[in-house]
Amino acid sequence: MARPLTIRPAAITDSDAIAAIYAHYVETTAISFETERPDGGIMASRIRDCLPRYPYLAAESEGKLTGYAYATRLYERAAYRWTAEATIYVAHDRCGMGIGRELYAALIDSLRNQGFQSVVGKITLPNSASVRLHERIGFVQSGILHKVGYKLGSWHDVGLYQLDLAARPEAPDETLPFSLDQSR
């Protein structure tokens, strides 16, 4: 990538820029199953809900937000607490420049440092770019949910991709909250 990229923890002040990146995917693709574009206020609330338990990262180049990634709880039940669900979006005009790969590397490093054992990505199919990104990082497909989302006039599958972050201990320690020291 020609331009220097900074990966940093997202801030509430990033919410409008994050909403703008996400709007493209909500309004023009089935990649997100949301059908209404959330505004900056909604995104600020989502950032607050995520932090400090899980990482929420922003990618910035030349003072402009170019992507973001975050992790959340996979499911509500307590036994799932060592597995996180990851989400990543790159500005549609910046795809293919390595931003997603750098964001994911930082997100995975943070999750590993926090003590998570695995991370799951859910990909609306077809989406060859996202599948390639996940597989290059080491995610493996662990299942497909068939025709679970209806958007833009058709039914869509969701691929489940999993990356193990550590060997499973017999009794895992509790995960740590996200902190600035765990991000790049």
Description:
This protein is of the alpha+beta class and 184 residues long. 28% of the residues lie in helices and 32% in strands. A 7-stranded mixed beta sheet has the order 1-2-3-4-5-7-6, with helices on both faces.
Could you list some keywords that capture this structure?
alpha+beta; Aminopeptidase; 4 helices; 7 strands; 28% helix; globular
What are the SSEs and their pairings?
Blueprint (H helix, E strand, L loop, with lengths): L5 E4 L5 H14 L11 H11 L5 E6 L2 E10 L9 E8 L8 H16 L3 E8 L2 H10 L2 E12 L2 E11 L20
Parallel strand pairs: 4-5
Antiparallel strand pairs: 1-2, 2-3, 3-4, 5-7, 6-7
Helix pairs in contact: 1-2
- Side-by-side strand order of the widest sheet: 1-2-3-4-5-7-6
* Largest sheet entry: 7 strands, mixed
| CATH fold node name | Aminopeptidase
**CATH superfamily, please?**
Gcn5-related N-acetyltransferase (GNAT)
N-to-C CA distance: 18 Å
**How does CATH name the architecture?**
3-Layer(aba) Sandwich
Strand-and-helix sequence, N→C? EHHEEEHEHEE
Shape: globular
Counting DSSP H or I runs of 4 or more residues, the number of helices is 4
CATH class: Alpha Beta
Give a summary of the structure in a few sentences.
The chain is α+β, with helices and mostly antiparallel strands. It has helices at residues 15-28, 40-50, 99-114, 128-137; strands at 6-9, 56-61, 64-73, 83-90, 118-125, 140-151, 154-164.
